[in-house]
Amino acid sequence: MNLTEFNQSDGCDHFSCPERSLSPAVYILLYVCSAAVVLLTMCGNLLVIISVLHFKQLHTPTNMLVLSLAVSDFLVGLFVMPFHFTWLIESCWMFGHIFCILFNFMSFQLTSVSVGSVVLISLDRYMALSNPFLYLKDITSKIVHTLIVLSWVFSFLYNFVFFYVNGNFTDLFLCPGECLVGTYNEVGSAIDLIFIVVIPCGLMLVLYFQVFVIARRHANAIRDLNQNKKNISKNVSEVMKSERKAAKVLGILVFVFLGCLVPYYICTLMSNTGSSYIVINNILILFYLNSSINPVIYALFYSWFQKCTKMILSCKILHTDCSFVNVV
């Protein structure tokens, strides 16, 4: 029995939002923590967006993909997180029927875009390492911009059709204080699991494994070359560090992403009762938190992000020709 049938059988005649069982101090603390997470998500990703857009040196195909991911993460913090946290703290949906549909559609849309962006970043790093000369020649900004637009459009069409087929635009059964969608059933969850998790995440893992193998192969070849030619040791060292960092950051990004995404889809696939819906709703926080973690990963491992953040916070980007400053 899916969630729609469950709620229709129970009916909404006596449904009301549960009374608060938390003390005022805990209640306020939850809202403060939620606000902090939302601000971290929005501000962190906004710094990434401003950095990539403002500094000309960062206008590379890879960073355009990072920008797409940062935009989707920023929108999660702006349009999804505040309402989801309020819903959980209050144990009641207070924003009405229409916004419930828009909220769920936005959540699914941004999830799809994030998955597509991480897959494209993995593919970009694989091509850059496997054939760097061909990558520099053929992978232009125009091609990357086209892929980004297609990923957003495809995600929109996929989710629109998925919602329409499941009746979420017309047949969503909503009691006052509830926000349930018909995609929480076994068939819908299985289909979404295949197209949003199994296929994309399988590609991520394969591509990352190839990136790791290639980076190790390059490192060994360069080490051998370095032993024979001492005069290129500095350049060799920089290349080795760059390749290892690219593989390391990509690996962290991919595995953190998978760690936040997979538990939610496993629970939706296994669940078919109203009680499990509460569990799903709580686990969904983990995936939203990925939007907060990504800027932290950039801050820890990308020196250009650290430099750009300092310049943005100190308002140096307002200076003339600041966009041409060397930040890499």
From TrEMBL:
Keywords associated with the record: Cell membrane, Coiled coil, Disulfide bond, G-protein coupled receptor, Glycoprotein, Membrane, Receptor, Transducer, Transmembrane, Transmembrane helix
Localization, UniProt: Cell membrane
Domain G-protein coupled receptors family 1 profile: start-end pairs: 44-298
Example of a GO MF term: trace-amine receptor activity
Gene3D superfamilies attached to this UniProt entry: Rhodopsin 7-helix transmembrane proteins
Listed GO CC annotations: plasma membrane
Residues in coiled coil: 215-242
Chief location category: membrane
Membrane topology field: Multi-pass membrane protein
InterPro entries: GPCR_Rhodpsn, GPCR_Rhodpsn_7TM, TAAR, TAAR_fam
Transmembrane segments: 28-53, 65-89, 95-123, 143-165, 193-215, 249-266, 278-301
Pfam families found in the cross-reference section: 7tm_1
The keyword DNA-binding is assigned to this record: no
Keyword DNA-binding (UniProt): no
SUPFAM superfamilies: Family A G protein-coupled receptor-like (SSF81321)
Family membership noted in the UniProt record: Belongs to the G-protein coupled receptor 1 family.
Name of the protein this chain belongs to: G-protein coupled receptors family 1 profile domain-containing protein
Species whose genome carries this gene: Tachysurus vachellii
